[in-house]
Design goal:
The complex is a heterodimer of chains A (291) and B (383). With 291 residues, chain A is an all-alpha fold. Chain A has a domain at 17-218. Chain A is 73% helix and 2% strand. Chain A contains eleven helices and two strands, in the order ααααββααααααα. A two-stranded antiparallel sheet of chain A has the order 1-2. The termini of chain A are far apart. Chain B folds into two domains: 25-145 and 290-368, Response regulator (Rossmann fold, 3-Layer(aba) Sandwich), CATH 3.40.50.2300; 148-274, Response regulator (Rossmann fold, 3-Layer(aba) Sandwich). Helix content of chain B is 46%, strand content 17%. Chain B is built from 13 helices and 14 strands. In chain B, the strands form four sheets. A five-stranded parallel sheet of chain B has the order 2-1-3-4-5, sandwiched between helices. In chain B, strands 7-6-8-9 form a four-stranded parallel sheet, sandwiched between helices. In chain B, helix 2 (42-61) runs parallel beside helix 12 and helix 3 (81-93) runs parallel beside helix 4. The relative contact order of chain B is 0.12. The chains are: A mainly alpha (291), B alpha/beta (383). Chain A binds chain B through residues 3-4, 7-8, 10-12, 14-15, 18, 108, 111, 115-120, 129, 135-138, 141, 207, 210-212, 214, 216-217, 219-221, 251-253, 255-256, 260-261, 263-264, and chain B through 38, 40, 42-43, 46, 172, 198-201, 203-210, 212-213, 216, 229-230, 233-234, 237, 240-243, 258, 261-262, 306.
């Protein structure tokens, strides 16, 4: 294998790891409510933004990260309480519109309070690239990958082993039935927004040392995360990882071997084909509607 | 009886005339501005709006213009050219402005121009693209260097250093693509050929795939990056990650303190054409752009506590060009001010020495951009 090829793969993994983290948040909320949360990108941005603003104010990195994640969690909570939850009887399409509205508000407020400049964060470990067979990857990308893996495993355990997690799944399958067996559906929904905000913020913080963050960072990351989640299968944790990495690799290999001009077009064409041939996504479970 | 009536009439008339005169004197000169304070172009529009406010205050503090106060009426187009068009209509019809500044973006400028032309109001755009003044439009003027000039400046430097085959890496935004197009168009003039032409998304977190491709092309002698904001930062870091030692050129979009801060050691040695405002402190004292750029930078930083940007400087230049034209015209008559603007001669501003003509509504060339190199994390004049 040529070093060039390995570099394309490593580049794809770096891109894909960030898409994965964004995709996980989408899956989380979709699982609990059937809603596609288009403010997911903003959760990512808020995490990175808060952490970098705090670090430049002299607060140590670990503390800044915790505060950043908490801030996003709070926004997730408020978003569900004040916006999405208020119209919980509305159709899913309406709720999705609500999330788009919230994303605009969050972006606008960030613009006002933190300004429009790009912000950075120091690398967590070293910023010296690691060499693999003539190609290089940043240690920070490994951080992103490792944390994504941890989150996936954590979510898997959460949904299969804990009562709360099972309750969340139940509420997404059938809200009424879940309510009848004593699951507090409202609490489940709130929790799903908090959790996905936490995951998103984590991702944002991890990516910021590589790519910097600005108030509008969330738009593109959110969009790519959504594509990744759809590719892999919405609602599936392993699907999010698969979709994210696949998307990153396809982009990098297209840029490397075809033309970088088509790099952004290929994933969108791909999602279109997948939607036609396999609407549940590559790893998604086939929906079974009983009549 | 009759005599006294006439006297009374004359007195009354005199009073009325005096009153009217006073009313005219008290009536402020109205300047309308449509800028992008929110949305994608907000990082450009914000310092422009701040600067305009600063300039209005300065002008009024100095006794106004032609003895009249100046009032600024400003709208935010949300980076949406369609909205810019609606706001300029309001400025023209409801506010009856004497002059217009704006269009943070080229799109907004062009969307507004047809209405402005019909209303016959002098209009200075802050947008970047060449199309604003090429072909020349009667009521439209421009203050900033266009992308072609930045490309020319960089290509000139490359040719001077003997780089004949270069790689181009442009982002997919309007800025990146327009800059790419201009570079491709003028490269031949300097004997430079573009042998690798790559693009990336400005929000990509990794561009090492494109960079690896460029790195492995042994014929490439230099890399020219056309991007803005996050893009050039990720590129610089990617080059450091790959250990690339290729001579690295940036466009004028990277000339900012932010680029220095966020790239750190990764941008060491990068060369770029920069507007004078960013690098005023390293210019020689003999440079006519130095003192006024430094003065603007100082005033802006003192008032808004953020480093000055090129875009704010464009607003400053637009304002002073107009003030200068009104002063020479001795009136705010729109046609006279327009003619005066067109006759601007040897007027130094942050972008160069402006000399306009009926064929040239920009009046500056690429020499107003300063070729700089990053050394030890700061700007130096490129040698």
């Amino acid at each position: 294998m040529s070093p060039e090829f390995i570099q394309f793969i490593l580049s794809g993994i770096t891109l894909g790891a960030t898409y994965t983290l964004a995709a996980l948040g989408f899956s989380m909320i979709f699982n609990a409510s059937g809603v596609i949360n288009f403010a997911q990108g903003e959760f990512i941005m808020i995490g990175g933004m808060c952490a970098s603003v705090l670090v430049s104010a002299g607060i140590p990195l670990p503390l800044a990260c915790i505060v950043g994640v908490m801030a996003a969690g709070l926004i997730g909570y408020l978003m569900e309480r004040l916006a999405v939850g208020q119209c919980r009887d509305a159709e899913v399409a309406t709720l999705i519109l609500v999330t788009i509205g919230v994303s605009m508000i969050v972006r606008g407020l960030t613009e006002i309070f933190f300004g429009k400049a790009n912000h950075g964060l120091p690398h967590f470990s070293s910023d010296k690239p690691i060499e693999i067979a003539g190609a290089t990857i940043l240690p920070q990308s490994l951080w992103v990958l490792a944390v994504s893996a941890l989150i996936v495993v954590g979510l898997k355990l959460f949904f299969s082993r804990t009562q709360l997690g099972k309750g969340m799944l139940a509420a997404s399958y059938d809200r009424l039935a879940a309510q009848l067996v004593g699951i507090d559906v409202r609490r489940v929904l709130t929790l799903s927004f908090i959790l996905s905000a936490l995951i998103g913020a984590f991702g944002g913080i991890l990516v910021t040392p590589i790519s910097t963050v600005a108030y509008d960072t969330g738009i593109m990351l959110g969009l790519k995360g959504f594509v990744a989640a759809t590719l892999g299968g919405l609602g599936s944790g392993s699907g999010a990882v698969f979709g994210g990495l696949l998307l990153g690799l396809v982009e990098a290999l297209t840029a490397g071997y075809v033309s970088s001009a088509y790099k952004d077009a290929v994933p969108f064409v791909m999602v279109f084909i997948v939607m036609v041939l396999r609407p549940q996504g590559l790893l998604g479970a086939k929906p079974t509607d009983r009549i | 009886m009759r005599k006294s009536t006439i006297a009374f009439g004359v007195a009354l008339a005199a009073l009325v005339v005096a009153g009217v005169n006073q009313a005219i004197a008290a009536e402020p000169i109205k300047v309308g501005a449509v800028l992008s304070l929110t949305g994608g172009a907000a990082p450009l529009g914000e310092p422009e709006a701040q600067t305009l406010q600063m300039m209005v205050d300065e002008t009024n503090k100095a006794g106004g213009l032609l003895g009249r106060r100046v009032a600024l009426i400003q709208f935010d187009d949300g980076s949406d050219p369609g909205k810019a068009n609606g706001f300029v209509k309001r400025l023209i019809e409801d506010e009856k402005v004497d002059m217009l500044i704006g269009g943070t973006t080229t799109g907004a400028t062009m969307a507004m121009y047809s209405l402005v032309e019909r209303a016959e109001i002098p209009f200075i755009s802050l947008g970047g693209a060449r199309v604003i003044v090429d072909p020349v439009k009667k009521w439209l003027f421009k203050v900033s260097h266009d992308d072609r000039m930045a490309s020319e400046r960089a290509l000139q430097d490359m040719a001077g250093r003997g780089y004949k085959s270069i790689a181009l890496l442009a982002d997919t935004t309007g800025y990146g693509q327009s800059s790419r197009k201009e570079t491709l168009a003028v490269a031949g003039k300097y004997g430079v050929s573009i042998i690798a032409d790559e693009t990336f998304n400005v929000k990509d977190t990794d561009v090492t795939a494109q960079l690896a491709k460029i790195k492995n092309n042994p014929a490439v002698q230099a890399l020219f990056v056309s991007s803005f904001g996050q893009g050039p930062i990720v590129v610089a870091k990617g080059m450091a990650q790959l250990g690339m030692t290729l001579p690295h050129y940036e466009g004028h979009g990277s000339a900012s303190q932010e680029y220095l801060n966020l790239t750190g050691a990764a941008s060491e040695g990068v060369r770029m054409p920069s507007p004078a405002v960013i690098v005023a402190q390293v210019l020689p004292d003999s440079d006519p752009q130095k003192a006024l750029s430094a003065e603007y930078a100082k005033a802006f930083e003192a008032r808004f506590k953020t480093p000055p940007s090129t875009f704010g400087a464009y607003a400053r230049d637009a304002w002073l060009l107009w003030v200068n034209a009104v002063t020479r015209a001795g009136s705010t008559d729109k046609a006279k001010v327009r003619d005066a603007l067109e006759n601007t001669k040897d007027f130094p501003d942050t972008s160069g020495i402006v000399t306009m003509s009926p064929q040239d509504h920009l009046g500056i060339d690429s020499s107003g951009l300063k070729m700089v190199q990053i050394k030890n994390g700061g700007w130096t004049l490129a040698k």
